[in-house]
Amino acid sequence: MADRTITLLIVDDHPVVRDGLRGMFASDPGFDVLGEAAGGVEGVELALRLDPDVVLMDLRMPAGSGVEAIAELTRRGARAKVLVLTTYDTDSDTIPAIEAGATGYLLKDAPRNELFTAVRAAAEGRTVLSPAVASRLVGAVRKPATLAARVLSAREREVLELVAKGTSNREIARELFISEATVKTHLTHLYGKLGVRDRAAAVAAAYDRGILG
């Protein structure tokens, strides 16, 4: 990557953040910002159309979450590497993002040089984690038995609660205003985190571990 310009897409719901990042990268000839998006849905669209080397992705956005966008880009085989750039470093944010396919995870208080280095590393396919996130992942690996209960995202909990009520995928999609494909993605993540293979087992495991009820 040292011999060519790294192209970027910025996905963040705050205009001032997008402006700041664009200005920062514009100051270095080694980077080229191809576009900006204010939410995950638009971010996926632009990433597939513009084909950047790296997508800088926020997580909590009204117009489509970052985790859902990362999972969709992974599902559709996008070439771009996703580097999460957010203010959130809880288990329920970091682990789902990495499981969905993020190459790296940085916090927004990262110094400029650290961010530039992380983007270059991500473009090369190398994993980049902020120290706080790395510590959380190490802790999660050391406590696998309690991991699932702590890392379910808010949306995954919503899907799980509806599944427990016997709601179909189509009805879940309608109630949560998401696509059936996204519901299936959430279920896949739930099965993996709970160590089960189907809806009934997921509900049983959730009650057994105190996630539901």
TrEMBL record:
Residues 7-123 form the Response regulatory domain. SMART domains: HTH_LUXR (SM00421), REC (SM00448). Residues 145-210 form the HTH luxR-type domain. The keyword Cytoplasm does not apply. SUPFAM superfamilies: C-terminal effector domain of the bipartite response regulators, CheY-like. It comes from the Bacteria. Pfam families: GerE, Response_reg. PROSITE patterns: HTH_LUXR_1, HTH_LUXR_2, RESPONSE_REGULATORY. Keywords: DNA-binding, Phosphoprotein, Transcription, Transcription regulation. The modification 4-aspartylphosphate is found at residue 58. Signal peptide: none annotated. InterPro entries: CheY-like_superfamily (IPR011006), NreC/VraR/RcsB-like_REC (IPR058245), Sig_transdc_resp-reg_C-effctor (IPR016032), Sig_transdc_resp-reg_receiver (IPR001789), Tscrpt_reg_LuxR_C (IPR000792), WalR-like (IPR039420). PANTHER family: TRANSCRIPTIONAL REGULATORY PROTEIN NARL-RELATED, TWO-COMPONENT RESPONSE REGULATOR. This is Response regulator transcription factor. The lineage of its organism: Bacteria, Bacillati, Actinomycetota, Actinomycetes, Kitasatosporales.
